Structure formats: structure tokens, C-alpha cells
Amino acid sequence: MMESHWLPVKESGIPLHQQIYDHIKLKIENGEWTVGTRIPTQRELASQFKVNRSTIVYALDELTADGLIESKVGKGTFVINNTWSLLASAPPPDWNSYVKSGAYQPNIQTIQYINQAEANPHMIRLGTGELSPDLLPIEQTKALFQQESSSPFSMGYPEPKGDPHLRQLVSMYLKKKGIEASPSSILIVSGGLQGLQLISLGLLHRGSTIFHENPSYLNSVHVFQSAGMNLHGIPVDDQGMVSSSISRLKKLYNGALLYTTPSFHNPTGVLMSETRRNEVLNICTSEKLPIIEDDVYGDLYFEEPPPPPLKSKDSQGLVLYMGSMSKTLGPGLRIGWVVGPEPVINRLADIKMQTDYGSSSLSQYAVSQWLASGQYESYIKDIRQKLKHRRDFTLEILNAHFKDIATWTVPTGGFFIWLKLTASLSTEKLFKKSLQEGILLNPGNVYDRSDQQHLRLSYAYASLPQLEKGLVRVAEMIKEG
Predict the structure, then answer these.
(1) pTM for the complete prediction?
(2) What value, to the nearest 5°, has the Cα angle with vertex 414 and ends 411 and 417?
(3) Cβ(320)–Cβ(340) below 8 Å
(4) pLDDT per position as a tens digit, 433-478
């Protein structure tokens, strides 16, 4: 809520409590904190502004005396007035009632804390699911923009399905994975999450049931829930989604589709075996249960490529296949794709044009350059080696400090280690304690609401010294209890 960069100036001639009073009053007057907003606690404000709690109490007492805020026992302190509402004949709009009545569900509080903490450049981020800034190919991308190219460049609105040249290149790229997809059956989207949003808006009815691995990334984003759909988890073992219950659940819940990440699943890191892939595809084919196959980590294997995607064996047009450059070239590009039957892709393209008029032409050009130049292949080989080194480094730390307090399996690609704590400690408590020490964790309840045993560790983002420092301290905190 409060900007992390503003601090009172201790060398100033103005008392600290007065500076804090002025700062909070300005946020209220400007309408940044509207009537009904709950302000941070005294302890949070004291920590944020690096002052004694008594200084905060003094400033809040002044704001209370001026009729701007009010404390309610057991509920907190709220904004009750601003300068406008004190002077105007009509009260200002109650924005909080609008915020609470919006259709899109808010993130669970843990995810809100994570999103806020990720904005702090000093935070050690042990769970972040993206490549470290040190690994991103910034200079190579700049150089590609300077080179002569056969890729057409436009600053206008792209075609509904995306730049034709990029779709042609993606079609060729998918062929190497065994997927035959013509450019007309490919839709360029602004990252995988938009693909899911378009599917929820364009293809599904309210009240539909979505099956997914449990735990699942889907539990951390409310894209389907906010569209009025129900999620139902299917357990995961070391071979991937347990397929034996799909038929029964389809009949029981009248499932609309199945969402799966077969290669280096988020958050468990599990690689679905080829046998299990065949089982899932065969069962879904016989049950006429469409599949969303999320393959954003498929290029990030360490030794052997993963088994062929489900889409490569799909002869019925059952699978909607999603890929993305967010986990390889960088999340800031916001470029991914959905592959499926042309009528479905046409429908999703129509919805996309209604929502954003197409993904960034500049980003589409950048991805075209990477694919057309042939440099993506050599780049991704280098990233695989660097991620493997980071994984091995992380496993060394785990073996040295976590053997008595946790168990884990060794991932063969992707970003994540799914750490199961054997100590009887609430991961929620550990999350909050770590956050106070500048260490950001991703607890299991983000991916399965009932989970209190797991942490999603990422070896992709933090620097090696940060990984070591953060993990060693987390191990100490677990042992402290």
C-alpha cells in the first residue's frame, strides 16, 4: 500500500512525526487512499519508515484529531474523510465498494505479499519463476534489432492472429517437436496467461469444471475462477498426473476440459512420462474431454529432451497447445502462442482483437528475429547448461543443510524443486518470518490451498550467492522451529 522508497529525512529540521503526518495526509487528499481504505498497522508503518512506534502513534493521533482517519477496535485504522469530502456538498464515491464488487477475484493474501515483495530490489527471491536478469539475452536482442532482416517490421496493429511471418516461424519451430500446425491454426498471444484468459472468455460456460494437476499453477491465478468456473485437482505422482481417475471425474463433475503441464510441471518440477502422456491422451480422446497442454518449460531440459508433446499425437483436434517465450527469452516480451483447430483459433483471435487489438508488434518482431536468425537454438543450449549448473548448486546446498528437515526429487529440467518439509512447522509462519528477514519464499498453499508442507524453490532467479545465503538461513529458521 505504502511506497517502499519514501522515508522521512532524519536530518531535516521538520520533526519525523510531522513528515509522516504530511505524507499520509497528502495520500488521502490526493485520493490515493480513498474513504474506507484500511491503512497499515502501527508496527508495519514503523518498520516501513524506520522510526519508533511512538513516532507513528503521534502522527496517527494528529490525523485522527483532524477527522481524516479512525481506529476501529479489532478491525484496524481506516480513512474516513479527505479534504474533498470535508468541503464538498456531495460525498466522494466509495471506491472500496466498487473494488469488492468487481468480477475478477483478488489474489490470496500470500500472493499479494509476494507481488509486493518482488518489487523490492534487495529481496532474496527463492521462489520466483523466471530467469535471472543476468541470464536474459538483452545485448543479443539489441543486436538483432540492428541486423538486416527478412522479417517485415510494422508499428501498426497486427493481424488478429498475429504477425504472419512470426506464425510461419512458430509453425517451423513446432515441427521440431513433432507438431504439425499451419500458421492459420496458430494465435500469437501476450503470454500464456492471456491464452488462458481467452479460452475462459471464448470457449467455456460459467459453472464449467476444469481439471488440473494438484498442486497447480492454476490455483495461483484466478483466470478461470473469475470467469465463474470451478477447479478440480487430480493428484500427481513421479510420472505426472494420475490418469486413472479422469474418466470417473469427467462423469461425476461433467468436466469441460483438462489443463496439464506435462514437461517440468509448475510447481512440482515433475516430467510426465511418455506412457502417462499416452494414457492421458487416450482417456481424454475416448471421453471427448478437451486438453490445454501448457508447454512453456518444454525447451528447458538438461540432458534428454522430454517425450513428445500430447499435441504431437493428437489426431482429433482435441488439444489446445500453449507455448511461450516468457521462460526463455524473457517475460517482458509477453509473447506466446495457442495452437488448435482453426475454428477455435478464429474464435480466440476475435476475442483477442476485442480486448487488446493484438500483441505488441515490436515484441513479435523481436521473437521473429530470434527464430529466423537461428540464434535461438544456440541461446537455449547455453541457458540449459546454466540452469543445470544452478540446479546442481542448489542441490548441494539442500544436501548440506536440508537433509534432516526436508525431502525432494531432482528435476530434469525447468525451474523448480518441490521441497517437502518433514519438520512440523507451518509454511505460512515460515513465509512471514523469512519475509521479515528479506527472504521471499513461495509456500505450497499458493498452489494447493490445503498445503502446509511444501515450498516451491526456484534455482532460476536468485544469484548463486543469494541462493546460498537465503537457503542456509531458511534451514536455520526451520530448525529453530
Answers:
(1) 0.81
(2) 45
(3) yes
(4) 999 999 999 999 999 988 999 999 999 999 999 999 999 999 999 9
Phi-psi region of 17 (alpha: psi -120 to 50; beta: other; left: phi over 0): alpha
**In this structure, which amino acid lies at residue 56?**
I
Residue 428 pairs in a beta bridge with: none
3-state secondary structure 328-355: CCCHHHCCEEEECCHHHHHHHHHHHHHH
Q: Half-sphere exposure of 326 toward its Cβ, with a 13 Å CA cutoff?
A: 22
Long-range contacts of 15-22 (CB under 8 A, 24+ apart): 16/49, 16/51, 16/55, 17/55, 17/56, 17/58, 17/59, 17/62, 18/59, 20/45, 20/49, 20/51, 20/55, 20/56, 20/59, 21/59, 21/62, 21/63
Q: How far apart (Å, rounded) are the C-alpha atoms in residues 193 and 120?
A: 24
DSSP string, 253-278: HTEEEEEE--SS-TTT-PPPPHHHHH
The distance in angstroms from the start CA to the end CA of the chain is 30
Alpha carbon distance 222, 228 (integer Å): 10
For residue 301, which of 415, 156, 407, 409 has the smallest C-alpha distance?
415
Residues of the chain with pLDDT under 70: 1-4, 82-108, 149-151
Identify the bridge partners of residue 125 per DSSP, sorted by sequence position. 440
Q: Which residues, 6 or more positions from 344, have their beta carbon under 8 angstroms from its beta carbon?
A: 203, 320
Identify the burial level of 109 via C-beta atoms within 10 angstroms of its C-beta, where 0-12 means exposed, 13-18 middle and 19 or more buried: exposed
Block residue for cell numbers 519438520: 423
Number of Cβ atoms within 10 Å of the Cβ of 257 = 21
Element (H, E) at 173: helix 164-175
Round to whole Å and give the CA distance between 442 and 253. 30
For 112-143, the pLDDT digits (tens) are 888 888 888 899 999 999 999 999 999 999 98
Pair 117, 440: CB distance under 8 Å: yes
Quickly list DSSP for 398-466: HHHHTTTTEE----SBSSEEEEEE-SS--HHHHHHHHHHTTEE--BGGGTSTT--SEEEEESSSS-HHH
